[in-house]
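Can't attach files on this board, so I'm pasting raw text. These are the components:
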Amino acid sequence: MELADRAVGLLLSIISLSIFTYYTFWVIILPFVDSDNFVHKYFLPQEYAILLPVYAGVTLICFLSVFIGYVMLKSKKKKA
Amino acid sequence: MKHIVKIMTLLVALSALWISLLQTSIIPESYTWLLPLYFIISLGCYGLLMVGVGLMRFPTCPHEAILLQQDIVEAKGFLKGKGVDIGSD
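---
Top answer:
Structure tokens for the assembled complex are below.
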């Protein structure tokens, strides 16, 4: 069990670090690179730097609301 | 209470810096608009990283446990002094 927890922790750390590195390159460093440089092939256009996080945030909030509603419904049923 | 003041000061300083970047337009405006989003995403990444590191190391806090036990004893004494029934231990 503890090994699984450690693996999940390592996975979370790696995911967060890689997202942070990629996004930093995308948003902070790419504006200072020439637009005909080969690096630009590895990144989506600039609009997606806004769209993807917004979509991710909206989905996250939707899931959270569904989960909270589910828990509230369940706890009310237990009381009655 | 002090912590929130610190955080608010940091936020105000960051937004002032951002607005000045918007006004002076050293870098293109479309990139300046991305910076708050970048800030939010780095906050999220920091949170995720802290959860991951906490899961990996899973630290125990013996010092805080002692302090908590002391607090419990103190609170029990206080409540007994006020005549509140808190059960026996």
